[in-house]
Write a structure and sequence with these properties.
Elements lengths: L2 H23 L12 E12 L5 H16 L5 H25 L2 E10 L4 E6 L10 E5 L2 E4 L1
Antiparallel strand pairs: 1-2, 1-4, 2-3, 4-5
Helix pairs in contact: 2-3
Length: about 140
C-alpha cells in the first residue's frame, strides 16, 4: 500500500468514526414518524339544517293539494288538477315538515400531522374545541 492509499484509508476511517460517534451522541437523531390519523381541530361550526320530512308532511300536503286542485276546472281537467295538486302538495308538505324539524349539526375541521385535512359532521355536540388533539378512528374522530 502506498502512502496516498494509506492516507485515504485513515481519513475515511476517521470520518466514519466521527460520524458514528456524533449520531450516537445526539439523542434526537431518530426518524420522526408522522401519524397519518393524528391531528388538531382547526374549527368547530354549529349550524341548523332542515330535518327530514316524513309521511305526515306528504299525506297532509297531498290532501290539501288534492282538495285545492279539485276546485279547478271540470271533467277531465278537474281530475288532472286534483292529481297535480295532490302530487305538488305532497312534495311541498314533505319539505315544509323538514323545515319545521330543524336539526343542529356540528362541523369539525381537522388538520392532520401529515398536512392533509378532513371534515366531520356530528348530530350531537362532540365537545371538541380549536386546538384539541384528535385521531381518526372508525370513520370519525376522537380526542387524544
Amino acid at each position: 500500500m502506498n502512502t496516498l492509499t494509506k492516507l485515504r484509508a485513515t481519513l475515511l476511517a476517521t470520518a466514519l468514526t466521527v460520524t458514528m460517534a456524533g449520531a450516537q451522541a445526539d439523542p434526537h437523531h431518530k426518524k420522526h414518524r408522522v401519524c397519518n390519523d393524528c391531528g388538531r381541530v382547526t374549527s368547530v361550526h354549529v349550524s341548523e339544517q332542515n330535518g327530514k320530512g316524513g309521511a305526515t308532511g306528504v299525506i297532509v300536503g297531498g290532501l290539501a293539494g288534492g282538495l285545492l286542485g279539485n276546485q279547478v276546472g271540470s271533467g277531465t281537467g278537474r281530475s288532472l288538477a286534483t292529481v297535480a295538486g295532490a302530487v305538488g302538495g305532497a312534495y311541498a308538505g314533505k319539505h315544509i315538515e323538514g323545515r319545521m324539524n330543524k336539526e343542529r349539526v356540528w362541523t369539525v375541521k381537522v388538520r392532520y400531522d401529515n398536512g392533509k385535512s378532513g371534515t366531520f359532521n356530528f348530530r350531537n355536540d362532540p365537545r371538541l374545541h380549536n386546538g384539541d388533539r384528535v385521531h381518526r378512528a372508525n370513520g370519525t374522530i376522537v380526542r387524544g
